[in-house]
Amino acid sequence: MFFCTECGAEVSKWSGKCPVCWAWNSLKETSRIIGKKKKSKLEGLPNFEGLKKNRPELLKDIKTGTQTRLKTSIGEFDGVLGGGIVPGMAVLIGGEPGIGKSTLMMQVSNQIAKNGKKILYVSGEESGQQIKLRSKRLGCEAKELYLLCTTNLEDILNSIADLQPDIVVVDSIQSVYLTSLENSPGSISQLRECTSLFTQTAKTGNIPFFLIGHVTKDGMVAGPKIIEHMVDTVLYFEGETQNQFKILRATKNRFGSTNEIGIFEMQSNGLKEVKNPSQLFLSREDNNIGSAVGCVLEGTRAFLVEVQALVSPASYGTSQRVALGFDQRKLAVILAIIEKNLNLNLRNNDVFITLTGGMRVFEPALDLAIIAAIISSYQEKALPANTLLLGEVGLNGEIRPVSQSEKRLKEAQKLGYENIIVSSRTKNINKKLIVTKIKNLRQLFPILFSK
């Protein structure tokens, strides 16, 4: 059989394009598994025999029970999962090589083991001596943290049945193999079967599983897309390898929101959670030309971000438009709005936009801050001190309100921002704040550069 790595479709003949999702060069050869699986692989697992007794039930008669989430004592990690670890959940964690996936899971395992839980850490890529050296560097001294160095799936399942752990960590899923399959570890058949058995074990035994996965050159988890459909939660550990700040983001979560992010700082003794992320993205320097401050929302968290702009005459013919941290096409739209409504000639200038701290933003709440930063660099005048700009800009220059403005303004007040510019349609503003309301972009210029 041939398996599409993009959509998971199966076909009997290879072709250059997938007949279902039309992706090019995505069909990979795999062996079809026929017949029943051996029972020896599943013997002794907790509650596995309960599968045979399942019968259809009325939805109204099913009782949910009171399952409490397990806290890891790492607030950023718990927040991304939706408040903690749910019993029986299967989590897939991906990220670039060297980003800190194994370091994060070792620290999480150590924190949970300190609370009296039994943790099984399965490593298929490193020896016990290597992991011991890392655990010393991270200060992992929990007594209930067990290590198993193997790549054989049957050995892992048997160890789970004997040890009865509370949480299992597999590093990594690409290194595990099933002996009944002839394919090499990391192939599509091996990944699909191993992930299926791990997920089944998590559900029937009520054991949370954390599967660490490799990523492709595009940044996606290596293997077919069907692996992400099998698990409950998919987390991505983002950030440049040389950058000390890392972002943990959920792209799929059956037990919480996918908008939550966790920010960590890589130090010599491991990852440290960042409690106040707003200070990472702000410089708070006076008379900083081409710099403006806005507020973004990630899930339930609001934090301030500094936007920096550089406008200079084009020296090489065609002017350049470079945006780091948000959509390139968005910058072209914003420049057209500025030229149309403020009569500023930017077509003969290079425009570079960046967000400090390596932040990536997809919401329109930073439109007003980006425009203010471009104007400040073009006029070579700094914005007034402690100024925050919050608003979405329409094509005709109208300023529109942003969602959850109360939460954003509260964060600005906490960090000492006094001059706040928002849309005239923004409601429920705290009376203690000094807020300037504007309807159109033409009102922004005299407010910023009145002196």
List key phrases describing it.
single chain; 451 residues; alpha/beta; Rossmann fold; Ribosomal Protein S5, domain 2; four-stranded mixed beta sheet; 21 strands; globular
Report on this model:
This protein has 451 residues and is an alpha/beta fold. 24% of the residues lie in helices and 24% in strands. A hairpin with a 5-residue loop joins β18 and β19. It starts with a strand and ends with a helix.
Fold topology:
Blueprint (H helix, E strand, L loop, with lengths): L1 E3 L5 E2 L15 E3 L45 H7 L8 E6 L5 H14 L4 E5 L4 H11 L6 E5 L3 H11 L3 E5 L16 H18 L3 E5 L12 H5 L2 E6 L6 E9 L7 E7 L2 E4 L17 E8 L2 E13 L7 E4 L3 H15 L6 E7 L11 H13 L7 E3 L2 E2 L5 E2 L4 H10 L4 E5 L10 E5 L5 H5 L3
Parallel strand pairs: 4-8, 4-9, 5-6, 5-7, 7-8, 15-16, 17-20, 20-21
Antiparallel strand pairs: 1-2, 1-3, 9-10, 10-11, 11-12, 13-14, 14-16, 18-19
Helix content: 10-25%
As an assembly, this protein is single chain
Coarse morphology: globular
Rg, rounded, reads: 26 Å
Please tally the β strands and state the result.
21
Mean pLDDT: 85
CATH topology type of the largest domain: Rossmann fold
Number of helices: 10
Portion of residues in beta strands equals: 15-25%
Distance between the termini: 72 Å
Total separate domains:
3
Sheet with the most strands: spatial strand order:
6-5-7-8-4-9-10-11-12
Task: Determine and state the CATH class of the largest domain.
Answer: Alpha Beta
Assign the CATH architecture of the largest domain: 3-Layer(aba) Sandwich
Parts with pLDDT < 50 across at least 5 consecutive residues: 36-44, 46-52
| Class per helix and strand makeup | alpha/beta
